[in-house]
Protein backbone atom coordinates (compact mmCIF):
# COMPACT_ATOMS: atom_id res chain seq x y z
CA UNK A 1 0.00 0.00 0.00
CA UNK A 2 1.47 3.41 -0.96
CA UNK A 3 2.55 5.76 1.78
CA UNK A 4 0.18 8.70 1.47
CA UNK A 5 1.09 10.39 4.74
CA UNK A 6 3.92 12.30 3.10
CA UNK A 7 6.27 11.30 5.91
CA UNK A 8 9.20 8.97 6.03
CA UNK A 9 11.11 10.71 3.28
CA UNK A 10 9.27 8.90 0.48
CA UNK A 11 8.97 10.82 -2.75
CA UNK A 12 5.95 10.70 -4.96
CA UNK A 13 6.55 8.83 -8.19
CA UNK A 14 7.19 11.25 -11.05
CA UNK A 15 4.34 11.93 -13.44
CA UNK A 16 5.16 11.34 -17.11
CA UNK A 17 3.48 12.75 -20.20
CA UNK A 18 3.10 10.59 -23.28
CA UNK A 19 4.96 12.36 -26.12
CA UNK A 20 1.94 11.68 -28.36
CA UNK A 21 -0.01 14.16 -26.20
CA UNK A 22 2.59 16.94 -26.41
CA UNK A 23 2.08 19.97 -28.63
CA UNK A 24 4.97 21.27 -30.70
CA UNK A 25 4.89 24.52 -28.69
CA UNK A 26 5.26 22.61 -25.42
CA UNK A 27 8.19 20.64 -26.85
CA UNK A 28 9.91 23.75 -28.20
CA UNK A 29 9.35 25.65 -24.97
CA UNK A 30 10.89 22.80 -22.97
CA UNK A 31 14.05 22.76 -25.05
CA UNK A 32 14.40 26.53 -25.33
CA UNK A 33 16.08 26.74 -21.92
CA UNK A 34 19.89 26.24 -22.01
CA UNK A 35 19.94 24.16 -18.82
CA UNK A 36 17.28 21.79 -20.14
CA UNK A 37 19.08 21.53 -23.47
CA UNK A 38 22.26 20.60 -21.61
CA UNK A 39 20.36 17.93 -19.62
CA UNK A 40 18.99 16.45 -22.86
CA UNK A 41 22.41 16.43 -24.50
CA UNK A 42 24.04 14.75 -21.50
CA UNK A 43 21.28 12.14 -21.37
CA UNK A 44 21.65 11.48 -25.09
CA UNK A 45 25.28 10.55 -24.49
CA UNK A 46 24.51 8.24 -21.56
CA UNK A 47 23.04 4.78 -21.23
CA UNK A 48 19.38 4.62 -20.18
CA UNK A 49 18.90 4.75 -16.42
CA UNK A 50 22.61 5.40 -15.78
CA UNK A 51 22.32 9.06 -14.72
CA UNK A 52 20.92 10.22 -11.42
CA UNK A 53 19.56 13.75 -11.15
CA UNK A 54 22.57 14.86 -9.11
CA UNK A 55 25.09 13.64 -11.70
CA UNK A 56 24.56 16.53 -14.12
CA UNK A 57 26.97 19.45 -14.14
CA UNK A 58 24.50 22.31 -14.45
CA UNK A 59 24.67 25.75 -12.79
CA UNK A 60 21.42 25.49 -10.82
CA UNK A 61 20.39 24.35 -7.34
CA UNK A 62 18.38 21.27 -6.43
CA UNK A 63 14.96 22.97 -6.56
CA UNK A 64 15.62 24.50 -9.98
CA UNK A 65 16.99 21.19 -11.28
CA UNK A 66 13.85 19.44 -10.09
CA UNK A 67 11.75 22.02 -11.96
CA UNK A 68 13.78 21.54 -15.15
CA UNK A 69 13.27 17.76 -15.01
CA UNK A 70 9.55 18.31 -14.40
CA UNK A 71 9.33 20.44 -17.56
CA UNK A 72 11.21 17.79 -19.56
CA UNK A 73 8.88 15.06 -18.27
CA UNK A 74 5.89 17.23 -19.17
CA UNK A 75 7.21 17.58 -22.71
CA UNK A 76 7.62 13.82 -23.06
CA UNK A 77 11.40 14.04 -23.35
CA UNK A 78 12.54 12.38 -20.14
CA UNK A 79 11.40 9.42 -18.09
CA UNK A 80 12.45 9.03 -14.46
CA UNK A 81 12.25 6.27 -11.89
CA UNK A 82 13.48 5.81 -8.37
CA UNK A 83 16.30 3.32 -7.72
CA UNK A 84 16.81 3.22 -3.99
CA UNK A 85 17.67 6.74 -2.84
CA UNK A 86 18.45 7.95 -6.37
CA UNK A 87 16.14 9.13 -9.12
CA UNK A 88 17.52 7.98 -12.46
CA UNK A 89 16.70 9.21 -15.94
CA UNK A 90 16.43 8.18 -19.54
CA UNK A 91 15.89 10.19 -22.68
CA UNK A 92 12.69 9.06 -24.40
CA UNK A 93 14.42 9.18 -27.76
CA UNK A 94 12.25 6.71 -29.73
CA UNK A 95 8.93 8.01 -28.39
CA UNK A 96 9.87 11.66 -28.95
CA UNK A 97 11.23 10.90 -32.42
CA UNK A 98 7.93 9.20 -33.35
CA UNK A 99 6.03 12.34 -32.29
CA UNK A 100 8.44 14.95 -33.70
CA UNK A 101 10.58 13.31 -36.41
CA UNK A 102 14.02 14.89 -36.68
CA UNK A 103 13.58 17.43 -33.87
CA UNK A 104 15.74 15.64 -31.32
CA UNK A 105 18.54 15.17 -33.86
CA UNK A 106 18.49 18.91 -34.53
CA UNK A 107 18.66 19.66 -30.81
CA UNK A 108 21.57 17.31 -30.23
CA UNK A 109 23.74 19.01 -32.85
CA UNK A 110 26.12 21.49 -31.29
From TrEMBL:
<dbReference type="InterPro" id="IPR036390">
    <property type="entry name" value="WH_DNA-bd_sf"/>
</dbReference>
<dbReference type="Pfam" id="PF01022">
    <property type="entry name" value="HTH_5"/>
</dbReference>
<dbReference type="InterPro" id="IPR036388">
    <property type="entry name" value="WH-like_DNA-bd_sf"/>
</dbReference>
<feature type="domain" description="HTH arsR-type">
    <location>
        <begin position="16"/>
        <end position="110"/>
    </location>
</feature>
<dbReference type="InterPro" id="IPR011991">
    <property type="entry name" value="ArsR-like_HTH"/>
</dbReference>
<dbReference type="InterPro" id="IPR001845">
    <property type="entry name" value="HTH_ArsR_DNA-bd_dom"/>
</dbReference>
<protein>
    <submittedName>
        <fullName>ArsR/SmtB family transcription factor</fullName>
    </submittedName>
</protein>
